[in-house]
């Protein structure tokens, strides 16, 4: 087991966007394909339900109703129904939004933080440099960075627990592709690793159930085929990356993990195939 304290895990998605496949997968199709806005709920034995990202919410359309934010929804058209929201899906699973005490944010793109306002009691865990990279941007640069500040709760700062203040560093075994992780709760249950490149300070999360190890890798790749077949995104995708060199490093870490530890389930946030196989609506 990758972690020292197992959790229960539910993979799902809150809405989706469409985009030409070739931009996200070298040699992919020119036609638009769907990219689900994945989120994960984990049942921690002490802290209860913990989310990794939230997917979209209806507020995305409010925040992108006018220029320049409207550019975002036209470049990546979004399909979303209220019943698709993370909050609605959790209610169906018997979890109220008020029950969620922690949300781990991989990064601050709108398709990952869109539902934060639905969880009034949650504290927010993220890498400080991820927020620092977007919080001072002007309107046009925010759109390019995929950041819509109106999606964040008004008391976001007061409810934040940046990783440096919330966790300790934990080394992995020698020879493991990742050298160390942030132990978010200090009990070995959720180990965050930096996967910068797509966005500055983006993190992935190692978690384990009683039967299976997972790496929730956010947008380090857009599909499992990318690391399985060694097919990084088209060079044009670099226009929206925070750092192309760091992206290549994160991509290579996934390749090494898949090659040397194939039993670990690597879950990209937007991978249709991974959600189809593992996002069955049942707790793992």
UniProtKB/TrEMBL annotation:
Protein name per UniProt: MBL fold metallo-hydrolase
Pfam (any one): Lactamase_B
Reaction(s) the record says it catalyses: 3',5'-cyclic CMP + H2O = CMP + H(+); 3',5'-cyclic UMP + H2O = UMP + H(+)
SMART domains for this protein: Lactamase_B (SM00849)
Swiss-Prot/TrEMBL cofactor(s): Zn(2+)
Keywords assigned: Hydrolase, Metal-binding, Zinc
Superkingdom per UniProt: Bacteria
Function: Counteracts the endogenous Pycsar antiviral defense system. Phosphodiesterase that enables metal-dependent hydrolysis of host cyclic nucleotide Pycsar defense signals such as cCMP and cUMP.
SUPFAM superfamilies: Metallo-hydrolase/oxidoreductase (SSF56281)
Leader sequence segment: none
């Amino acid at each position: 087991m990758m972690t020292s304290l197992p959790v229960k895990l539910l993979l799902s998605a809150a809405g989706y966007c469409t985009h030409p496949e070739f931009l996200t997968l070298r040699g992919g199709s020119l036609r638009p394909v769907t990219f689900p806005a994945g989120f994960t709920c984990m049942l921690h034995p002490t802290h209860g339900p913990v989310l990794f990202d939230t997917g979209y919410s209806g507020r995305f359309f409010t925040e992108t109703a006018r220029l320049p934010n409207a550019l975002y929804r036209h470049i990546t058209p979004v399909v979303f129904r209220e019943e698709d929201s993370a909050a609605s899906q959790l209610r169906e699973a018997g979890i109220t939004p008020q029950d969620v005490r922690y949300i781990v944010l991989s990064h601050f793109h709108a398709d990952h933080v869109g539902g934060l306002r639905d969880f009034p009691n949650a504290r927010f865990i993220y890498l400080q440099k991820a927020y620092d990279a977007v919080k001072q941007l002007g309107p046009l640069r925010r759109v390019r960075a995929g950041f819509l500040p109106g999606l964040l709760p008004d008391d976001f700062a007061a409810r934040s627990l940046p990783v440096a203040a919330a966790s300790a560093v934990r080394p992995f075994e020698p020879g493991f592709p990742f050298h160390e992780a942030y132990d978010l709760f200090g009990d070995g249950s959720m180990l965050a690793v930096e996967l910068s490149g797509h966005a500055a300070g983006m993190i992935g999360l190692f978690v384990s159930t009683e039967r299976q190890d997972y790496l929730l890798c956010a947008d380090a790749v857009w599909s499992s085929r990318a690391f399985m077949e060694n097919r990084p995104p088209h060079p044009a995708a670099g226009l929206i990356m925070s750092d192309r060199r760091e992206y290549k490093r994160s991509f290579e870490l996934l390749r090494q993990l898949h090659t040397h530890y194939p039993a670990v389930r690597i879950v990209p946030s937007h991978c249709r195939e991974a959600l189809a196989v593992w996002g069955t609506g049942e707790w793992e």
